[in-house]
């Protein structure tokens, strides 16, 4: 009888050389993964910034609505003093703001206060990050004026470039004047 002899088509040496990924391939995979992770982080940062801007708008709008509703029958007079304690008692501030005693804080631990100015009132919203400040100021409408930090008050609409210049790169206090 004839014996069948099977021979492997690939040598054992070649199998050892072809096993797994090379160091260069591994570095390429890690580089691609890093780019994907950085992109995801950038998208999340942008989404959180937009969410914080919306939250800020909603809080300021809720305060304005509450002040107008509370002082509706007062012959358009808000007085000339700090209204914050009265508004806390009337539960005007949204629950997303932190109320402790007679002080109100926003998401960024900035002071939030409301002051009467006769026929007008002001809402001061402190410690707002630059990116959120720019969006809130440029998106402000239906206010008598908007002021950032120690800058001059301006009547809306405020151009994004003007808002960017006013907000700078750090945190700012925004003051809206309404009636």
Question: Describe it for me?
Answer:
With 179 residues, the protein is an alpha+beta fold. The chain has a single domain (21-178), classed as TcpA-like pilin (2-Layer Sandwich). 44% of the residues lie in helices and 18% in strands. The chain has five helices and six strands; from the N terminus they run H-H-H-E-E-E-E-H-E-H-E. The chain has helices at residues 12-18, 23-70, 84-89, 130-138, 160-167; strands spanning 98-100, 103-105, 112-117, 120-128, 145-148, 172-178. A four-stranded antiparallel β-sheet has the order 3-4-6-5. A two-stranded antiparallel sheet has the order 1-2. A hairpin with a 2-residue loop joins strand 3 (112-117) and strand 4. The longest helix has 48 residues, at 23-70. The protein is elongated, with a radius of gyration of 30 Å. The model has no long low-confidence stretch (mean pLDDT 87). Keywords: Membrane, Transmembrane, Transmembrane helix. This is Pilus assembly protein.
């Amino acid at each position: 009888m004839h014996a069948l002899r099977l021979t492997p088509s690939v040598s054992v040496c070649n199998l050892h050389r072809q096993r797994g990924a090379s160091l260069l391939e591994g570095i390429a995979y890690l580089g691609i993964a890093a780019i994907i992770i950085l992109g995801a982080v950038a998208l999340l940062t942008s989404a959180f910034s937009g969410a914080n801007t919306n939250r800020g708008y909603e809080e300021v709008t809720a305060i304005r609505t509450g002040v107008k509703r509370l002082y509706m029958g007062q012959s358009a007079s808000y007085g000339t003093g700090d209204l914050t304690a009265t508004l806390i008692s009337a539960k005007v501030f949204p629950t997303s703001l932190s109320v402790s005693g007679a002080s109100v804080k926003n998401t960024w631990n900035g002071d939030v206060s409301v002051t009467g100015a006769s026929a007008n009132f002001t809402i001061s919203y402190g410690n707002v990050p630059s990116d959120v400040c720019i969006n809130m100021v440029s998106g402000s409408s239906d206010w008598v004026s908007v002021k950032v930090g120690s800058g001059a008050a301006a009547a809306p609409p405020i151009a994004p470039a003007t808002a960017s210049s006013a907000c700078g790169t750090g945190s700012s206090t925004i003051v809206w004047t309404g009636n």
